[in-house]
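quick q for whoever's on today - can somebody do inverse folding on this one?? i tried earlier but teh output was garbage lol. tokens:
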């Protein structure tokens, strides 16, 4: 059963321009790890931009006056989703009386800080205003289409992607549409909403967005896939599929996630991870974040990742501590793993005849952390490790390592092609970069 085991929604019930030198460094050295300090992004948005992707967050309008919140949001993210402010109940509280005050606050904050905006959401069974909840049939169909048209028109030209329709499929093994007042207006309500959105804002990418659609073998995933394939074959205007990606122990990150993203992308749509949060803590949570980033980076049409909130305390399920910053705004281990995975980029091709080295963060203590390095392509190698800031070497194993600050050099000592180092942070927790050459 694919049910959300956390509380359901409730409310009132371009490739970055890189210099030739940097490019050469990347090509000559590692397939996975970035290879120069210049190439490593020090924020989520900078690291994602290295591969032409965005990194976003949900934003709540009522927190825009909180400096601790906006400081992190502004520094780390370049895509913004209104957490609630563009939903149906917020934007059309009374029929045909639209209220864009809070949605506009978020758009204006985003634009004045150089960020793009995902629109969320034009048609949904949940968070409908009372008047709409009580409607049915052709009156509801017209009201829904009017809502789509009015809201998409208001924000025309300001939205990168719209979640036109949200959560229209049932959980479980049926593969059926979710029952709702909108669904009862006729099975074609979804495509009607997409056509209305396209007419109102021809430049926004139009997405279908849902949860529990991550595991390729699940019926709900297949059902959404079949709808998108049908839409593409009939010319219904759909450009992207959003994967909410709310994970917890009942709905874990699936090992076939890259397959799911890749198969959707192969239909000719962009895919985006739209509301990422992962219940948990420590290494287990961090590794799951890393897996999500790696899955997205493995699919060229996976154009960006958004988390569903800034700090754990901002989360709609704060008890699960599912985000990248703790309640005090400190970076969590999940942040470090996410940043590292973004900086590592997609799996590049190793240079022929040479060697590659991958750099992975391992155990971490308050003053120091371990780094694992794995060489492939040759057993006669020399690895240069560029430490960050004032980091210094404490310990090493399975290779002969010389130097203690700045650049270390490692050569084999008869213990194979994987080795490790322990580094004192000395104020810098960033992962070192490494280059490999054959000897
Ligand atoms: C959530 C918000 O985070 C909460 O503040 C609100 O009370 C309920 O909705 N799927 C979605 C989002 O598409 O809109 C939901 O957001 C989370 C689940």
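ok took a stab at it. sequence:
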């Amino acid at each position: 059963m694919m049910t959300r085991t956390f509380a359901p929604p409730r409310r009132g019930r371009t490739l970055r321009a890189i210099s030739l030198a940097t490019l050469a460094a990347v090509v000559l050295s590692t397939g996975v790890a970035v290879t120069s300090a210049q190439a490593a992004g020090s924020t989520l948005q900078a690291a994602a931009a290295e591969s032409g992707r965005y990194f976003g967050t949900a934003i709540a309008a009522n927190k825009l006056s909180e400096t601790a919140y906006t400081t992190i949001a502004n520094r780390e993210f370049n895509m913004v989703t209104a957490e609630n402010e563009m939903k149906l109940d917020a934007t059309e509280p009374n029929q045909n009386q639209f209220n864009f005050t809070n949605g506009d606050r978020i758009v204006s904050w985003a634009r004045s800080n150089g960020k793009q905006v995902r629109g969320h959401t034009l048609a949904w069974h949940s968070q409908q205003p009372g008047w709409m909840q009580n409607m049915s049939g052709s009156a509801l169909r017209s009201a829904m289409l009017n809502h789509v048209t009015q809201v998409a028109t208001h924000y025309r030209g300001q939205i990168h992607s719209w979640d036109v329709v949200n959560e229209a499929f049932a959980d479980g093994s049926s593969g059926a549409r979710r029952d709702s007042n909108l669904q009862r207006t006729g099975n074609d309500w979804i495509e009607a909403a997409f056509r209305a959105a396209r007419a109102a804002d021809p430049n926004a990418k139009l997405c279908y967005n849902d949860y529990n659609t991550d595991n390729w073998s699940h019926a709900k995933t297949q059902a959404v896939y079949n709808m998108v394939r049908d839409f593409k074959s009939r010319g219904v205007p759909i450009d992207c599929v959003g994967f909410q990606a709310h994970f917890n122990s009942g709905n874990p990150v699936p090992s076939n996630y890259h397959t799911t993203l890749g198969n959707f992308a192969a239909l000719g749509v962009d895919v985006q991870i739209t509301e990422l949060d992962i219940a948990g803590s420590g290494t287990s949570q961090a590794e799951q974040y890393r897996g999500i980033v790696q899955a997205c980076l493995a699919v060229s049409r996976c154009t960006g990742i958004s988390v569903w909130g800034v700090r754990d305390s901002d989360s709609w399920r704060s008890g699960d501590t599912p985000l990248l910053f703790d309640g005090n705004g400190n970076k969590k281990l999940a942040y470090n793993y996410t940043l590292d995975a973004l900086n590592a980029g997609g799996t590049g091709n190793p240079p022929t005849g040479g060697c590659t080295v991958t750099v992975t963060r391992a155990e971490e203590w308050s003053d120091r952390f371990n780094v694992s390095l794995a060489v492939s392509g040759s057993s006669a190698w020399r690895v240069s490790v560029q430490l960050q800031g004032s980091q210094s070497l404490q310990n090493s194993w399975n290779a002969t390592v010389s130097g203690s600050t700045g650049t270390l050099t490692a050569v084999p000592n008869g213990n194979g092609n994987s080795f490790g180092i322990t580094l004192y942070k000395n104020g810098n927790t960033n992962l070192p970069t490494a280059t490999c050459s054959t000897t």
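fwiw Confidence is low (pLDDT under 50) at residues 5-38, 347-352. also Residues 9-11, 83-84, 166, 244, 275, 316 surround XIL (CB under 6 Å). so keep that in mind when u check it
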